[in-house]
Amino acid sequence: MGKGHIEEKIKKAVEEIKKWKQEISLRLVGQNQLLEGILMGLIADGHVLLEGVPGLAKTLAVKTLAEVMDVDFKRIQFTPDLLPADLIGTMVYSQETGKFYARKGPIFANIILADEINRAPAKVQSALLEAMEERQVTIGDTTYPLPSPFFVLATQNPIEHEGTYPLPEAQIDRFLLKLKVDYPSFHEEIEIIDRMGENPTIKVGKVISSNAISNIREALSSINVDNRIVEYIVSLVTASRGNSKSDYPFSRYIEYGASPRASLYLFRCARVRALLEGRSFVIPDDVKKEAINVMRHRIILTYEAEAEELTTDDIIKQILSVVPVP
After folding, report:
1. CB 13 within 8 A of CB 219
2. Are residues 147 and 25 in the same domain?
3. Average pLDDT, integer, range 108-134
4. CA distances from 160 to 2, 168, 282, 285 (A)
5. Are 233 and 269 in a shared domain?
6. Residue 270's domain is classified under what CATH number?
7. Are 181 and 230 contained in the same domain?
8. Reduced 3-state DSSP string for 95-119
9. SS3 of 14-54
10. Mean pLDDT, range 43-53, rounded to an integer
11. Total structural domains within the chain
12. Residue 156 near residue 118, CB atoms below 8 Å
């Protein structure tokens, strides 16, 4: 494939993404990091974990994304009494035919918002995460493929832990990104009131065609990643592990480091960052920009780190500061 053809594919993909952003921004004020993180997860064919207090437009952002794409959207409120069958579906007996048939659950949608995922018991969490990984669901004796695209955004509230079921590390590792959603700025909050105070149902158009995601992902696959960039990604991830205790002073704060999945996901996200910037190649800054969102939920800190009030974000910043840049 010629360089000119690659550049043209990337240019078209960037134009599609720009249309996305512009249309979503008609309804969503600020929250650029949230919007870019959601788009990154969708383009990279991964899933996203959102953490933030209620009222920060997490649900609005996801619902608006589904509307501009013209795809099926389901919001599932996770509660302690939720059962796996409520999520994936179950076999139902029909008196008319005298046979059982599969009644599919809300998981059979293109975009799923799993609201407060840590409020549901382990069986329900496992059912969702298995569907995320396998892209299929078994009901009775039949396995049903999930629709494409299939994109899960799960939210959790960082300030309420009573009556919750924290996601195990092995399961939380399956999320491509963990985004922390913060409060809007003073001026953004004024704009929210101006824009939505009297008209909370701003309409958005369906600006993304059914083939757009495939075309964007095809453009993504043509972005070049130099071997030195790959080595840099792996160096960042391995620096978070215990076998580097003699090399880095921050290692004493790390109980368990990031898995090889972090290297793979950081590679994918660096490519998406390059695409968002309109480039056909990845640079070290692409890796740096995505390292925190990719790695923050994959590093487990020691009690010493907690005693010193260090967060995983602090440790990742230290890793970025000491690992040599190619």
Report:
1. yes
2. yes
3. 86
4. 54, 17, 39, 35
5. yes
6. 1.10.8.80
7. no
8. CCCCEEEEEECCCCCCEEEEECHHH
9. HHHHHHHHHHHCCCCCCCHHHHHHHHHHHHCCCCEEEECCC
10. 88
11. 2
12. yes
Encoded tokens for 292: 């925190």
244-273: average pLDDT: 85
What is the pLDDT confidence band of residue 160, given thresholds at 50, 70 and 90?
low
**Which tokens belong to 31?**
């929250």
Q: Coil, helix or strand for 1?
A: coil
CB under 8 A, 24+ apart: contacts of 195-202: 195/29, 196/27, 196/29, 202/26, 202/27
- Output the domain CATH number for residue 74: 3.40.50.300
**H-helix or E-strand containing 289?**
helix 284-295
Residue 208 contacts by C-beta under 8 Å, 6 or more apart in sequence? 16, 19, 20, 68, 69, 70
Q: Is the same domain home to 10 and 159?
A: yes
Same-domain status, 64 and 191 = yes
213-257, pLDDT tens digit by residue? 888 888 888 899 999 999 999 999 999 886 544 567 888 888 888
Residues forming a β-bridge with 49: 154, 178
**Count of CB atoms situated within 10 Å of the CB of 244:** 17
Instruction: Note the pLDDT of residue 244.
Output: 47
Average pLDDT over residues 36-60: 85
User: Which residue range is the domain that position 233 belongs to?
Assistant: 223-322
Q: In sequence order, what DSSP letters do the residues of 47-96 get, joined into one string?
A: -EEEE--TTSSHHHHHHHHHHHHT--EEEEE--TT--HHHHHEEEEEETT
**Residue entry with tokens 């495939």:** 214
Helices (H), 114-259: 122-134, 169-172, 186-196, 212-221, 227-238
Mean pLDDT of 32-55: 87
